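Lab meeting, action items carried over

1. Structure of the two-component assembly. Owner: GW. Status: complete.
Input record:
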Amino acid sequence: MTTDPNAPNDVPDPSDVKEEEEFEERHLLGQLFAALTARYRNEEGQLNIGVKRQDLQEALHINKTGLTRLLDLLRQEIAPLGLELVEYRLGRDTLYCIRTLYGVPGELSDPEYAVLGVIIATIERASKTKRPRRIATKDIETVLVARGRLSRYQLDRILRRLGELGYITRTARRITYGPRLELEFDAERREAIANASTIYLAGATATQEGDKL
Amino acid sequence: MLSNETSTYLRAFPRRKAWYETFQHNYKRNRLTPFGTKRITITLWNLTKKYEGALKQKDIIPVKEAEIDREEVADAYRVLETPWERNLDGRFYHTLATMQHHRDSHLAAPELAPEEWIIHFAEEVKRRATPLMFLVNRERSVPHFSLPDTDNPVTMSEAPTRDDQQAMKQHQVPFSEVSIDSLDTLRNTLHKRLQGKRFKYSELSDHLTNWELDLLSQMIRDNIIPALFDKNSVKFLSKHKEPSANATFAAVAIEAKKYAEVRRR
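Predicted assembly:
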C-alpha cells in the first residue's frame, strides 16, 4: 500500500513545532528586554531600576532555574549590542537591569557629572573601614560653592536631582552612594575617578589642612 | 607662688612637690634670661605671621624666598628653650610645609575658569561611566507589569477631546491684553446697557457675548454693578443705589451662546 503524499497530515511537522517555539521564545525575550529597561518608584519613594526577580517569576509563571536560563539567553542576545545584564540586590530583593558595556554619556548634564565626580572622589578618599561610606554635604560645598564654581542653589538642585535619579541617598547633612551609582561606576572606575580628580581638587586640600589648625 | 590649695595638695606628696619646685625654678630662669633668644623669637614670629597671612590670602611665596627664610631660622632649635618658643618654632615649620603643599598643588592645577573646570571634570567622570539603559526616560509611578491589559483599554469618552480643547482655546478671553482704560470704557458701556433692567437667566446669554458675560461676573463680584438675584431672573440696579439689606448669596452658571473677540486698543 502506497501513502498519498497529498493527503492532509494531522500530525504537525516536528520542525514546524520547533520554529514556533523559537519564535515564541524570541517574542518573550523582546518583552523581557523592554521590561528590564524600565524604572519605577515604589511606595516608599525609592527608585527601582529594572524588575524584581519575584515579579518576573510571577509574570512568566516559571521557576528560578527557568528564569536563569531565560536570562542567560537574553544575556547572549544583547551582548553583541554592547549591553549587559546586571543582577543586583536592593534591600531584600534581587533585581535585574541592563547597562552598557562601554563608556557612554548618560542622562546627566555636565555640572551634574562634575558634582558626582566630587562626591565620588571625596568618599573614596574617606576612610575605607567605616561603613556606610558617607561624607558631609559641607565638604562638597567647600570645593564647589566656596570656590565659585556653582551657587548654593544650583548645588542644592543638582543634589536633589541626583537623589531623585537614584545616584545618591541623602540624609540631612550627609551623602552616601545610591544603588545606581554603584551599578554605573564599579569600584575600579570609582578609584580611577578619585585618582584623576586629584588635579582638579588640588587647591582644596591645602585649605582644608589649614582649617584644621 | 603656689596658691593655698596647691600647697596643701603638694604637702601630702613630697616627691611631686620637689618636682614642681624644680619646674618653677627652671621656668623662671628661662624667662629671666631672654637675651640669647629674643631676636630669633621675633624673627620666627614675623616669618610665621608672613606665611600664615599668605596662606589666608592664597598667595604663593616662591621657593627661593622660602628657602632663605628657612635657613635664617634653621638653627633656632639650639637656643629655644621655653615651651612657647618651641611651639612657635613648630608653628613656623608647619606653615612652611603647608605653603609648600599649596605651591605644588597650584602648579599642578592650572587656573581654569569655573565653567571650564566643570566641563573638564565632567568629561573625566563621563567617560568612565557605564550608564544603565532605559527605553523610557521617565520613571513610572506604577510598575509596568501591574498596568491593565491592552485588551480592555480605559475609556476616555468623558475627557475633553482635542477639538473641544481647541474650540475652548479659540474663544478664550484674553483680558490681560486689554488696556486698563479700554477695560473701563467696556465696563461703563455694559453698565449703561444693563442698569435698571431685569433679565431671565436663560435670556441673558442671548443678549451678551462670552466676554461680556465674563466681565459681568467680575463686576458683580466686585460690586461695581449691584444686582438682585431671584429664582429665575436677575435685576441690575443703578450704580449709586445700594442693594437692599439681607442680600443672599447666589451662584448662577450661564453658558455663552455668542462668541466674539474683545475689542482691543
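2. GW to write a short summary for the group page. Key points so far: Confidence is low (pLDDT under 50) at residues 204-213 of chain A. The first helix of chain A runs from residue 14 to 36.
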